[in-house]
Amino acid sequence: MPEVDVMPGNKAVAYGVKLSRVKGIALFPITPQTTIVEYLADFIANGELEAEYIHAEGEHTAMAVAIGLSLSGVRAFTATNSQGLAYMHECVAQAPAYRTPLLMAIANRTLGWFWSIQPDYSDVMPELNLGWMIQFVESNQECLDTVIQLYKIAEDRRVLLPAMLCLDGFYLSYSNERVEIPDQEDVDDFLPPYEPKHAVDPTVSDFAPGAGLPPPLHTTYRRIYEEILNDAKEVIKEVNEDFGKHFGRTYGNGLIEEYRCEDVDAILVTMGSMTTAARRAIDELQADGHRIGLVRVKTMRPFPSEEFRRLAEDVEAIGVVDRMVLHGTGGGGLGADMKSALYSMEDRPLIINFIAGMGGDDISTMDFRKMGERVLKAVERGRVEREVEYIEHPFKPAGRLVPLKEKRVIYPGSGGCTGCGASIILRHVLDVLGPSTVVVDPPNCAGVNYSSVVGVPWILANYAATAGYQTGLYRGYKLKGKADKIHVVSFAGDGGTVDIGLQALSGAAERGESIIWICYDNEAYMNTGIQRSGSTPLYARTTTTPAGRLWRGKRERPKNVPLIMAAHGIPYVATASIAFIPDLRRKVKRAAEITSAGKGLAYIHIQAPCPTGWYYPPEKTVEVARLAVLTGAWPLIEIEEGRVKLNIKPKKLRPIKEYLRLQGRFRHLTDEQIEEIQQWVNESWESWLKLEEMGKLPWYR
Amino acid sequence: MSGEKHPLGIKGLVGRGGLLSGGGGVGGMYVGDWRVFTPKIDYEKCTKCWLCVAYCPEAALSKGEEGPQLDPRFCKGCGVCANECPVKAIEMVRE
Ligand SMILES: Cc1ncc(C[n+]2csc(CCOP(=O)(O)OP(=O)(O)O)c2C)c(N)n1
Known about the structure:
By secondary structure, chain A is of the alpha/beta class. In chain A, helix 5 packs across helix 7, helix 8 crosses helix 11 and helix 9 (305-312) crosses helix 10. The N and C termini of chain A lie far apart (72 Å). Chain B has a domain at 36-95: 2-Layer Sandwich (Alpha-Beta Plaits). Helix content of chain B is 11%, strand content 20%. In chain B, strands 2-5 form a two-stranded antiparallel ribbon. The chains are: A alpha/beta, B alpha+beta. Thiamine diphosphate binds at residues 29-30, 59, 83-84, 87, 443-446, 463, 493-496, 522, 525-528, 533 of chain A.
């Protein structure tokens, strides 16, 4: 008997992945997708799913890992959205060429230009036409079911293409609904193990997919892919029907889902979770005697043109509700597809394209009623007044700012967590640097919580590109003869420094850009909800390195990024702590002197204890930081022109246990694990002492 | 909408209070209602070492004549000041 539970859409996706017996999962966190991969981590940590789980250092890598897994011949999964999907784009384009039937879940979220974590389809819009199959779901049950269906469709020998499952961020991903969890045997019966047609496996054959193609073949291959995608429509319908036989549920015909479309003059066309409200509007309109139905697009790619041409035979007007704008065309993506699908019809219906719900703006039943009425009016008049209509709602700003008389570099109060260590760092850094400072900040807790109380320019950089933004600003100031007067400083988290931001940072260091890099290290991706980073300490528990039946926290030691930065031969590298404020302030000042003199990049790595993510009471923030230094877990180091100095050298390091026992993230540790951590701390401390003894790192001139 | 005054000043530009902000206005964020415990300062004991001011994550404490001055509008009640005070001159009390 299938089990019934109440769960958010992200958990339903994770269940789908688990029941599909996926063998490889590549991940990188982003709201509101992240809990999908967190649930999967829990399944694996507790022995409920056997799969490789790969913490990529960015989405570009995450997709590359998923493609690699699929090429090796195993069933692969990844998930992302928005900024992450955009960063992944190059590899997304590669997947269809390699015919890798992997699945990616997209918990839709708008794509910056202007940022928000709320949903619309501007994130998948640039991915629509790369050769992936793309389905949109309306409910959490459909999330689970569609994962299973999509693996079957994608792996069908007639298809062999990657697939995307789009669920609306928050509306589905974080909202609870009743979900039936099918029995594993039934899913096994429906979805056999993946038998790749071609795996890259030199022990079996020398096959490898080519990536290059001579010019004349490009047109031919594009045609072939179009034919495959067109044929996939039949497979989608078959699988949907077959699923119905096994589990008693289908979603329209797999391509579209019609609702009360008999004897109507007009239809509204929707996608995703908005359909539920639209359905209510249709009920109301029909109750009032109006002849209007509803069609939900489940499969966006391949686009169900034939279905709509069939429906269009019988209606006089179609209202297309779009959650994506094709800027510069004057309309939306679904609207454009609809028009091009129907253009060849001799007697085609009128079309009104509604743009609504951008950035998560709620589209209510009332809005749909109004849209329905507009479409019915078009039927009545035989013409449309405006081809594109925007459904806009008034904005009410929530004013929480207390005006203060004097101008400051940073104002009191903030949206950050109570007892935030990063806040202490930011306040001192800005106080030392002064008003002639430009902060460049990748997405992180600081950007979300502190940018609104900062009194100097604060530029949001794309996650992997912080040092690039800094370089451009710095070089611009240099051209204007102001490079020595303006501090271009990052305020990057550990994720934005040691993982996804490292490539651009390394480039800037090597080029000798005179910029300041502040890394505030809370030892995980905190803004997305405490996922492991390359800086998370050994055995710490995070949401992607949980402690369970099989897993006991993060298995790897953190990267030594200060030393990596010193390997570039940059003039200044330091670590600092909020428990040693004079030392911290002195280092920031030194960094500013060095960069103002145009000597190159100055890098300061500051530990930022996080009560929310490390699970300790907020009043202990500075105490935890102090113990990190006194136990040797966070050595205070300064490397100026290659000369290593340990700023605080306790006669005897305190046992690491004293530091660990304050924090919930280490609560699960066994004595052996504590011993191993102690060993790691000792080794790293010894290494720094040795480096200090060398006098000067040999690669510095 | 064009021609109308945008609620945030410049049409299409997110002002302070949004993610893409910084610079511009002058003011702090009201967070006084987050607080459960409030620091109570004993000015007799206070030695004016100013550690509490340096460590306050919200800059709710500033240097004053007789010791640290609390602006309750900006204090979330984290208790770092009380925890760090070397002479125990700050006590967290329930409001
Ligand atoms: C390319 C890209 N991928 C993912 C995200 C989602 N994201 C926003 S903040 C964040 C984590 C930030 O972690 P860190 O850099 O360590 O700073 P913290 O929030 O911990 O202070 C992530 C993954 C994003 N904005 N852009």
